[in-house]
Amino acid sequence: MSQRKDAQPQLLLVYDGECPICRRYVRWQRIRKEVGELELIDARQDSEARQELTAQGIDLDEGFALQVGERWYHGGEALHHLALLGTRSGVFNRLMYRLFASQKRTVMLYPLLRTCRNCLLKIISKSRIGNLK
């Protein structure tokens, strides 16, 4: 993936488009303007990003993936970086920053969030993404 002409890094977020929590999170998440624009990609749809992540062995059922420039972050590490890149405006973004700006706290909380997502998908009868099948 190449950088845009304005020298801001490419920002891609590959997330589960059928998970209600994931959809709401990406809709409410705001990135600081000076960081760049975040492109959202549904992990359930075929895309260059999904193919690249699959080739790297990154399991999208274990967490979403964030690309900043050429580097991919996955799961809790991606959530931590999103918190750092996000604005501090609005209740949601301030809360996300307070919860996930600490990498140690994010590492502790992310497995619980992933478990909640997996339980919700079962309750609403949605299959796993299965990109590594």
Your description of this structure?
This protein has five helices and four strands, in the order E-H-E-H-E-E-H-H-H. Helix content is 44%, strand content 14%. 26% of the residues are buried. By secondary structure, it is α+β, with helices and mostly antiparallel strands. Strands 2-1-3-4 form a four-stranded mixed β-sheet, sandwiched between helices. It is globular and about 35 Å long. The longest helix has 21 residues, at 103-123. It starts with 10 loop residues before the first strand and ends in a 10-residue tail after the last helix. A hairpin with a 2-residue loop joins strand 3 and strand 4. This is DUF393 domain-containing protein. It comes from Halomonas llamarensis. InterPro entries: DCC1-like.
Strand order of the largest sheet: 2-1-3-4
Cα distance spanning the termini: 24 Å
The averaged pLDDT comes out at: 91
Q: How many whole angstroms does the radius of gyration measure?
A: 14 Å
Biggest sheet layout: 4 strands, mixed
Sum this structure up briefly.
The chain has 133 residues and is of the alpha+beta class. The protein has helices at 20-28, 48-55, 76-85, 91-100, 103-123; strands at residues 11-15, 38-42, 65-68, 71-74. InterPro entries: DCC1-like (IPR007263).
SSE blueprint and pairings:
Blueprint (H helix, E strand, L loop, with lengths): L10 E5 L4 H9 L9 E5 L5 H8 L9 E4 L2 E4 L1 H10 L5 H10 L2 H21 L10
Parallel strand pairs: 1-2
Antiparallel strand pairs: 1-3, 3-4
Helix pairs in contact: 3-4, 3-5
Organism: Halomonas llamarensis
Protein name: DUF393 domain-containing protein
InterPro entries: DCC1-like
